TrEMBL record, chain A:
Residues 1-20 form the signal peptide. Coiled coil: none annotated. It is found in: Periplasm. Residues 68-448 form the Solute-binding protein family domain. Belongs to the bacterial solute-binding protein 5 family. GO terms for cellular component: ATP-binding cassette (ABC) transporter complex; outer membrane-bounded periplasmic space. Keywords: Signal. One of its GO terms (biological process) is dipeptide transport. PANTHER family: D,D-DIPEPTIDE-BINDING PERIPLASMIC PROTEIN DDPA-RELATED, PERIPLASMIC BINDING COMPONENT OF ABC TRANSPORTER. One of its GO terms (molecular function) is peptide transmembrane transporter activity. This is Dipeptide transport system substrate-binding protein.
From TrEMBL, chain B:
The chain crosses the membrane at residues 33-54, 101-127, 147-172, 266-287. The keyword Transport applies. Pfam families: BPD_transp_1, OppC_N. It comes from Shinella fusca. This is Dipeptide transport system permease protein.
């Protein structure tokens, strides 16, 4: 009997090893659980990694590892002369994924595209409120509800978007995660079954990987989509091992429990680099971290005060202490890798003496202020508390007393948007589509006051440039406008621009084909792993 | 064994010892307690004289010397015996100043919870009946929550900060004192000496505070010592979770939390605050053990 068990165990083991040899599994240690599985509803990078970049596609896609656009589900497109009509020709024969829970009977057509967008802005659409508190935050944040006049189906494989005004970044916006194309057939079936909420739990799209299972806060499993229109992926299975602690992720990577990890601690990078089994990819991130003053509240409504505070802070010290040098000091609100970056702009020089004098001249004495520090690590700011402590010490040198406050992350985002916020808030931004508009107008435009514009800064001159640049299609012309806008920004100093960080992705040497994404997304299409 | 016989001899020999020397006699029989007391006194002295003992100002950031290793490791210097942290502050100085906060927290929390706990417990035990039931059910409710969780909720409501953390921890600690006092009061109340003084005409307040309370103090003192150490621990835990002391306060738990990411790269930033918490709490607990030996009549051997 004992012999039999041993034999059985040996067979089981052998068969296990055999499957291991046959299927290639890539394990990715991700940093957080996805908020849900419908990319339109959320804004978190971990959600996009787990949904839109695995299970879904968009009409246009960003080239792997760049912000250039390439055809996705749309094979080609035309823009009308007035810039208000975009006609997309859909790819023929694109199959939706076949899963345990749904088997599609038809291929992608114009209805799917229309459904994917209309559910996000038509309030009478049954899918507009299918989960409690659905807000379509990104769709609204990009100004789409006021932009899209209507979407029409020309024929089965042709869709036309009609806009209310010309919008230069429109195409790039369609490459973003919220614009993922869902299956209308699947949605219709869920609706008929009365299980609409499953759309947010069991994704089904046209993407390179098919969703298999999700164990809450532990792991997400995918398998390669055999019918993928761009060919089956080199790996067979993809696993997201959700590991919230960066030190634990690093340990798992070293132990070989995962092949790729997200966001290592800056302090661990040097050690990971020395590990002979690991490779560490680095790239300048498309991001910026800033300290936004509330320009509506005195004395921060005075330019001189904001300038003086900017001059008092030693930003290099922040880069050294928080990023261990893996970042550069920022002077513009957009990162240097982005087109239209104005290198001629001069940063406020670190000069505590001059800063002190400037404050005195502005008639501000014994200034007490609050510094809001984010409670979580983001790629652009790994430790906001530490940065805040450094600023606190710097400001003390010019006689400003700073108090550091912090809130739970969701609360922090909400409270820091308030127009009457007391204090300056540390925050940052990672670009969504590689367009400067996505930084300058989204974060500093008048429309964003009380929202993404944490400085509550509305400058007519700056805002006019933004509107003009939006309506211009010519890139050279737009570059000029954005360069000018950066000069105005620096002159008015609504923010203290802190840093642009390096994004680091450590991985096993067995992994090949992984490309760093400037948008901070982790994509696994095209990635292979050696035995 | 010989120690026991010796002490018996000593005791039966001379005149009956005074209260203090009797206390010390029993206390010192517990070696751990004496060591604990000694360490506690050292920490106390260091905390009181922090400005004279600490080599540096705890919040001055030396930007040239980030993450400097401690003296005994390669690259360490005498200037910073235990090294520096991520923003270049001297760890030894921060620990020394941190001792002030930890002891202060312990003291405030214990005072708050002892005073309120004893008062409430005294009322409950003395009056019994509905008052008692009402008070004890509330205490049961508080005790039904895991203490740290309740403290977290309270701090979340009150807002993070050292003062609010102390209030929250005292509130969480207080039911223990209420229960202890109530039990002791109930046991004492029916004793002859209490009945005697009642017959002699003592008023309620006099009975409660002057007759009964002094005879209930022994277990309370022991509990207070233990609460002292658990308060330090809880405050460190709250600080670790970002709900306690706010920067740049050199509180041990906060220091630990800020240094977490360096566990691989710079072990000293994480290790020393942790050790400081460990040693302090251990010392106080040992001391509490000795106090129990000395104060609890049941444990006395003669």
């Amino acid at each position: 009997m004992k012999k039999l068990t041993t034999l059985l165990a040996a067979t089981a083991l052998a068969s296990l090893m055999a499957t291991a040899a046959w299927s290639k599994t890539l394990v990715y240690c991700s940093e957080a659980s996805p908020e849900g599985f419908d990319p339109g509803l959320y804004t978190g990078g971990q959600t996009f990694d787990a949904t839109s970049r695995t299970a879904y596609n968009r009409l246009v896609e960003f080239k792997h590892g760049s912000t250039e656009l390439e055809p996705g589900l749309a094979e080609s497109w035309e823009v009308s002369a007035d810039g208000k009509e975009y006609t997309f020709k859909l790819r023929k024969g694109v199959k939706f994924q076949t899963t345990d829970y749904f088997t599609p009977t038809r291929e992608l057509n114009a209805d799917d595209v229309i459904f994917s967008f209309e559910r996000q802005y038509k309030t009478d659409n049954p899918w507009n409120k299918y989960v409690a508190g659905a807000s379509w935050e990104y769709f609204a944040g990009m100004g789409f509800p006021d932009l899209i006049d209507h979407i029409e189906k020309v024929d089965d494989l042709t869709v036309k978007f009609v806009l209310k005004r010309p919008e230069a970044p429109f195409l790039a916006n369609l490459g973003m995660d919220f614009a993922s194309i869902m299956s209308k057939e699947y949605a219709d079936k869920l609706q008929a079954d009365g299980k609409m909420e499953l759309l947010n739990q069991q994704p089904l799209g046209t993407g390179p990987f098919t969703f298999v299972a999700y164990q809450t806060d532990a792991a997400i499993r995918y398998k390669a989509n055999p019918d993928y229109w761009n060919g089956k992926q080199p790996i067979d299975d993809l696993v997201f091992a959700i590991t919230t602690d960066a030190a634990v992720r690093a340990q798992k990577l070293k132990a070989g429990e995962c092949h790729i990890m997200a966001y290592p601690n800056a302090a661990d990078v040097a050690e990971l680099k020395t590990d002979p089994n690991l490779q560490v990819l680095e790239q300048e991130g498309l991001n910026v971290a800033y300290l936004a003053y509330n320009t509506l509240v005195p004395p921060f409504d005075k330019v001189e005060v904001r300038k003086a505070l900017n001059m008092a802070v030693n930003k290099q010290a922040i880069v050294d202490a928080v990023f261990q040098g893996a970042a550069t000091v920022a002077k513009n609100p957009i990162p240097p890798t982005m087109w239209s970056y104005n290198n001629a702009v001069e940063d406020d020089k670190y000069d505590p003496e001059a800063a002190k004098k400037m404050l005195e001249e502005a008639g501000v004495k014994d200034l007490k202020m609050k510094i809001w520090a984010m409670p979580v690590a983001r790629p652009y700011m790994l430790n906001a508390r530490r940065a805040a402590e450094l600023m606190q010490a710097d400001l003390a040198k010019i006689g400003v007393t700073a108090e550091i406050v912090s809130y739970e992350w969701a609360e922090y985002l909400k409270l820091s948007s308030a127009k009457d916020r007391d204090g300056a808030a540390i925050l940052g931004w990672t670009g969504d589509n590689g367009d400067p508009d996505n930084f300058l107008d989204t974060l500093l435009g008048c429309d964003a006051v009380g929202g993404n514009n944490r400085a509550q800064w509305c400058n007519k001159e700056f805002d006019d440039l933004m509107t003009k640049a939006k309506e211009t299609a010519d890139v050279a012309e737009r570059t000029k406008l954005y360069e000018e806008a950066q000069v105005i920004f620096k002159r008015e100093a609504p923010w203290n621009t802190l840093d642009h960080s390096l994004v680091v992705v450590p991985m096993s040497k067995k992994v090949s084909g992984f490309k760093m994404d400037p948008l901070g997304i982790h994509r696994f299409d095209g990635v292979d792993i050696a035995e | 064994m010989s120690a026991v016989s010796n002490t018996t001899e000593a005791k039966t020999g001379g005149t009956p010892p005074s209260g203090l020397s009797e206390f010390w006699f029993y206390f010192s029989r517990n070696k751990g307690a004496v060591i604990g007391l000694f360490i506690f006194l050292v920490i106390l002295v260091v905390a009181v004289f922090a400005p004279f003992v600490a080599p540096h100002n705890p919040s001055v950031q030396n930007r040239e010397l980030l993450l400097l290793p401690p003296l005994f490791q390669e690259g360490g210097t005498w200037g910073h015996i235990l090294g520096t942290d991520a923003v270049g502050r001297d760890i030894l100085s921060r620990l020394i100043y941190g001792a002030r906060f930890s002891l202060f927290i312990g003291l405030v929390v214990v005072t708050l919870s002892v005073v309120s706990g004893v008062l409430i417990g005294l009322v409950a035990g003395y009056f019994r009946g509905k008052v008692d039931t009402f008070i004890m059910r509330i205490m049961d409710i508080i005790l039904a929550f895991p203490s740290l969780l309740l403290a977290l909720v309270l701090v979340a409501v009150l807002g993070p900060g050292l003062l609010n953390a102390m209030i929250a921890i005292s509130l969480v600690n207080q039911p223990h004192f209420v229960r202890l006092t109530r039990a002791a009061v109930m046991a004492e109340k029916s004793k002859d000496y209490v009945v005697g003084s009642k017959v002699a005409g003592a008023g309620t307040l006099r009975l409660m505070f002057l007759t009964i309370l002094p005879n209930c103090l022994a277990p309370l003192i022991v509990q207070a010592t233990l609460a002292f150490s658990s308060a330090i621990l809880d405050a460190a835990a709250l600080g670790f979770l970002g709900m306690g002391a706010q920067p740049p306060t050199p509180e041990w738990g906060t220091m630990l939390a800020e240094a977490r990411e360096f566990i691989q790269r710079a072990w000293w930033v994480v290790t020393f605050p942790g050790l400081a918490i460990l040693i302090t709490v251990l010392a106080i607990n040992l001391m509490g053990d000795g106090l129990r030996d000395a104060l609890d009549p049941k444990l006395k051997r003669s």
